[in-house]
Each structure stands twice: as C-alpha cells, then as structure tokens.
Amino acid sequence: MSRAAPYAGLDPERVLAAVEAAGHVPDGRLLALPSYENRVYQVGLEAGGFAVVKFYRPGRWTDAAIAEEHGFVAELAAAELPVVAPLACAGRTLLKHGGFRYAVYPRRGGHAPVLESAETLAWLGRLLARVHEVGARTPFIARGALDLDAFLRQPAAAVLDSGLLPAHREAAYRAAMARLDRLLGARFAAVPARLLRLHGDCHAGNVLWTEAGPALVDFDDARMGPAVQDLWMLATDEVAMEQLLEGYEQVRPFARAELALVPALRTLRQVHHAGWIAARWHDPAFPHAFPFAGEARWWDEHLADLDSLAEDLSA
Description:
- The protein is an alpha+beta fold.
- The chain has helices at 12-21, 63-78, 118-135, 148-162, 170-190, 238-248, 262-279, 285-289, 296-314, and strands at 26-33, 39-45, 50-55, 95-97, 100-106, 196-197, 207-210, 213-216, 224-225.
- The protein is built from 9 helices and 9 strands.
- The chain is globular.
C-alpha cells in the first residue's frame, strides 16, 4: 500500500517540544510505551515525576470524537471515579503541535488486576456499574457505536483491500463474512439492548490496580454499546462473569439477557482485529509487531476460527 507511514515525522525532539508546548518542561528522559494504534511516551519532567503523552493516529478520530472521549472521562473524574484524565493546557485537553494531535496525562502506577480473585472481580463490577451510570446520562454523537458496520463490514473491506489475504482464500472469506453478517444481525435483533457510553476496550491491560483498588485507563475505544461489552473481556468463564455481576448489581441493574450477546461480541472482536491489522499494514510498526499476518497459514487459521464462531452463533 502506498500511504505514507503516519508517524514518520514524530521524532524524539518533536515529542519533547510538544510536551513543552503543553506547559511542561521535559528533562530529556523519554521512553516509548507499548502502543500500536497511537504513539505513547513517558516523559521525565524537570519539576519531578513524569508525564505520559499520547499522539493520536492521524485520520482515525475527528476532533469532535476526541473531545467526546475527553468529556466522558472528565465526567467520570467529576463523579470521583478512578480514571486517568488528560491534563488541560489553556483550557484545552486536545492539543496540536508539529502536525500531530496529542494529549498529556499524569503518569499513574499500578499493575494488572488478578482476575482469578472473586473480590477483585466484584470490585471491578462495582466500578463498571458506576461508569455506566455516568455513561447512560447522554449519548456519544461523534464516536459512533459498536455495530456491524464498524466492527465487521469495514474491517472485512480492509482485509480484502490489503493484499494480505491469499487470493485463493478470498471467496471463502467473503462467504464467511456474509454468513457472520446474517448470524450477528439476527443475534443483535433477538437481544435488543440499551446502548450507553462505554469504555469499549475494558480488558486487564486497561486496568491499573493499586492498594487503593482499580483505575481505568485508555478510553481511546470508547463508543456507544451494550453494558456487557465492558464486562466480558474481564470474565474468563461463567463463574467469573457471575462474580463481576455480583458487584455490578450492587450498584446498578444489569439486563442479563445481554449475556447472550457475548458470543457475538467475541466474534466481532476477532473480525475487527484482523481488519485492524490489515488497515494499518502501511504503518511500519505493524508488519514488525504482527508478522504472522503476512503468512497464508495465519489466514487459514483465522478462517477456521470464524467458522467455529459461526457454528457457536448458529447453535
């Protein structure tokens, strides 16, 4: 693909200059943190401590959509929920420098939660219920929803356009997408759910745990969707889901019919992941991080996984 690498001009000097333009004086220490969708750095400050600066992927979100993300996190922080919100500079949290959009965050410590603990899961359930209480107040307008267009059709189009899918597997892939489109559409129609503002990508890696409990980070995938989307990635099995819900329902009612959406949401995540890699293949970080996507064998395995997921949805 001929598109230019999106972060080609983002060198260390530009990162440090952006942090300084946001009103913080860096001391020269700079560490790239794991992130593929955006670019994220930890920067040492002369005043002491560190800031974390996130440079948004060009073309992914509009300014209005990023503003909605920041506004949602600000609402959560105002409700005294443990979230990591961006810092304001001259009243703005979405900043621009050197052709990039970015935000600066305080660095927060912590480790991933122990999801085998019933107490931990109940605590997370209570936190997510409080997040959803805020999320249900008003809708996102610019960020869209977790739906078949964004998580199945667009990713499938990216795969077919990428050149990564072996030509002899294209017909099978198109057939698999058509079948999943029908099955998923039927499942969502059969289980109507109230949509609310969500974290959207609530897995263990986006939870920081300390002695004070959990804090949620990285709302970059926040969208409208059913409440269960923020629960299922934290639940390793049905027992874990019950433990999450035990905490959740202490704070907010949960429509248990939404549990029938978990297989559909799991399927959409699989499809979206492959499409995400395909759509980003022009970014040099992606072939390096996901070399398997350039191998025919991986696409054969992906198609087999999709067939298995379709069978589960058909059952």
